Amino acid sequence: MTDSLERMVGDWPVEAAEAARLTAERYGPPDETMPSRLVWNHALPWKRVVVNRDASEHRFPMPHVDRMENWIDLEVPRESAADLAAFNGSIRVERTRGEMAVTCDVEAINFLAVNLAHDLVKGRINVDEARREYTEMAAGHLMGRPQPYTSGLAFAPVDAGAGTADEDEPVAPHHVPTVDTRRMGRRK
Amino acid sequence: MTGLFTEGWPSSATAAAHATTEKYGPPDEASPSTLIWHDRAPWKRIIVSRAMVPHRFPHTHVDVIKHVVDHPVPMDRIGDLAHFSGSVVYDRTRGELSSHCEDEEGNVLSLNLAHDVVVNGLDPQSARRRSHHAIETRNSQNRDPYLDALMFTPGRGADPDEATIDEHLRDRLRQALGGVDR
Fold first, then answer.
1. Which of A25, A49, A177, B25 is most buried (most C-beta within 10 Å)?
2. Quick one: where's region Disordered (chain A) (predicted)?
3. Do A85 and B78 touch (CB under 8 A)?
């Protein structure tokens, strides 16, 4: 496993390769591999973990690069989308699929982000409180003081098929073209 | 070509993969569940997935193909974007706007309408009605041009936000925690 993983990430940036190794140590070998990303499915408590070769710059709460995506099933009401984006721009909501992703450089901070996002969606905190708590708990974690919110999910993740997906509904009935019935019969 | 990659895939996902290959060439990356094309103008990225996601807006279909562009979205327009379609997703840090649908023209339509919602102040309900009408009439002489090409030029919109952990906070936390910064 180690040799094949090393081959997969051999040409990746050092930090990306290290993120892949740490994830493989925790969850085993990836389920899917591509040149730019490795995917672990059902890496509990996550629905999916993705480590990307290519990073994007993120400065909140301190400068780092986003590289590791952690996904859960979560129903996010339309009304919460703007608040989540204002809290942390590295939270992505896939409402149709009923999924939410948090992206950062380490899993502990993704636990923190998803726990505070869950509090925000449930109305326990507002955007300012979420940003303040994120800042303070991330700082504490960085100083070597793990916080409960950086150690795991602080809520029970829903089971697959729990109905977080939102199929939406048509604006109006879809008009299905019909064929003239006189032309549908068997030729004589 | 994509037959090698899509063996055993559902027909809708296979059709999306074939159509994309016909138009843009073979994918740059492939796994058992995903095909990816990078930098195929006007798209930053195209992703076809084996997994089908049921979606009933603007009509009943399955989402199998995602098209991604760079497009900034002001914070005060994100709520309206969410009310327009659950399959249009904004990634604020990367500045990426994507649409997930059954084919490319569905995504072109959704992204044009998303642009109108975000930039031109179109209300979400009007965008939803136009989306429905465009699909209803796509095989008629009244075909909506929003199905055929992007009506905007994608532009960089990454938003890295700002640092909130500063030295002052680190000092305060050190004192409060009574510990040493490791």
1. A49
2. 160-188
3. yes
- pLDDT for A188: 42
Query: How far is A50 from chain B, CA to nearest CA, in Å?
Result: 13
Say whether residue A92 is in contact with chain B using an 8 A CB cutoff: yes
- pLDDT-wise least confident of A119-123, A133-137, B177-181: B177-181
Contacts of A57 in chain B (CB under 8 A): 93, 158, 160
Question: How crowded is residue A187: how many other Cβ atoms within 10 Å of its Cβ?
Answer: 4
Contact B64, B12 (CB under 8 A): yes
Q: Does A174 touch chain B (CB under 8 A)?
A: yes
- Does residue A12 surpass a pLDDT of 50? yes
Q: B165–A138: do the CB atoms touch at under 8 Å?
A: yes
Instruction: Report phi then psi at A72, rounded to 5.
Output: -135, 160
SS (H, E, C) A5-58: HHHHCCCCCHHHHHHHHHHHHHHCCCCEEECCEEEEECCCCCCEEEEEEEEEEE
**Measured in Å, how far apart are chain B's first and last C-alpha atoms?**
53
pLDDT digits (tens, 9 = 90+) for B42-64: 999 999 999 999 999 999 999 99
Q: Token digits for A141? A: 């974690």
In which residue are the tokens 């649908």 written? B101
Please name the amino acid found at residue B17. Answer: A
C-alpha–C-alpha distance, residues B9 and A108, integer Å: 35
Instruction: For A56-102, write each residue's pLDDT tens digit.
Output: 999 999 999 999 999 999 999 999 999 999 999 999 999 999 999 99
